[in-house]
Design a protein that fits this description.
Blueprint: H1 23-35, E1 41-45, H2 51-58, E2 62-67, H3 70-83, E3 87-91, E4 102-107, H4 121-130, E5 131-139, H5 143-150, E6 154-166, E7 176-187
Helix pairs in contact: 1-2
The chain binds S-adenosyl-L-homocysteine.
């Protein structure tokens, strides 16, 4: 309910696949990590307007958010300030930014639906480099690709959840379209 109050992207860029994680999906991911005792120190890659990082901070995590788009980061900062939580925001490109190791990476990376996007590969690569465990959101049907891509790391569990996608781009024809996404817990080696 608190995450429903956050401000989303003001001018989402389709090439960057900027859409906010719906609060229902964000809480599923965050409670999952919390119940496993893995929501103490987290890094949110491609944090956008901050939903996952702020949600983690609200649940007591020490949280960091990395984002390429300065406009999105401004909104994220503002969202955190309004809720009175602290998150370490960092502007940077996940493909090149140097990050210290962190126990848990949380992320809703670009799915690669738009051609120009790098998709989720660079995000998975960075997440495996810095994290012990990854909680990540991907479009449905990704399991085979992810299983091979993350080797020798491994998928521990996949959960399928509905993802209500609000109309945010010109080319979206319906107000809300519910798609199915996959939540992954990946253990890094
Ligand atoms: N995680 C946010 C936003 C998801 S959209 C949420 O859950 O609401 C994906 C985000 O990744 C966008 O904000 C986009 O700007 C960001 N992004 C795309 N490529 C990036 C890159 N190379 N480095 C850092 N952030 C990137």
């Amino acid at each position: 309910m608190v995450l429903e109050r956050l401000e989303g992207f003001s001018e989402p860029v389709p090439e960057m696949e900027q859409y906010t994680t719906p609060p229902s999906v964000a809480s599923e991911l965050l409670y999952w990590a919390h119940l496993r005792g893995e929501l103490e120190r987290v890094c949110d890659l491609g944090c956008g307007t901050g939903t996952l990082a702020i949600g983690a901070a609200l649940m007591g995590a020490e949280a960091m958010g990395i984002e390429l788009d300065p406009a999105a980061l401004l909104i994220a900062r503002d969202n955190a300030r309004r809720l009175g939580v602290h998150v370490n925001w960092l502007r940077g490109d996940v493909r090149s930014i140097a990050l210290k190791r962190v126990p848990t990476v949380i992320m809703n990376p670009p799915f690669g639906a738009q051609r120009k996007s790098q998709g989720d590969r660079a995000f998975l690569q960075k997440a495996m480099k810095v994290g012990d465990v990854i909680y990540s959101i991907h479009n449905s049907g990704s399991e085979g690709f992810i299983r091979r891509f993350v080797e020798p790391s491994s998928i521990d569990e996949v959960r399928r959840v509905p993802f209500p996608l609000r109309r945010c781009f010109e080319f979206h024809s319906r107000e809300v379209k519910t798609i199915e996404v996959e939540l992954y817990r990946i253990v890094c080696r």
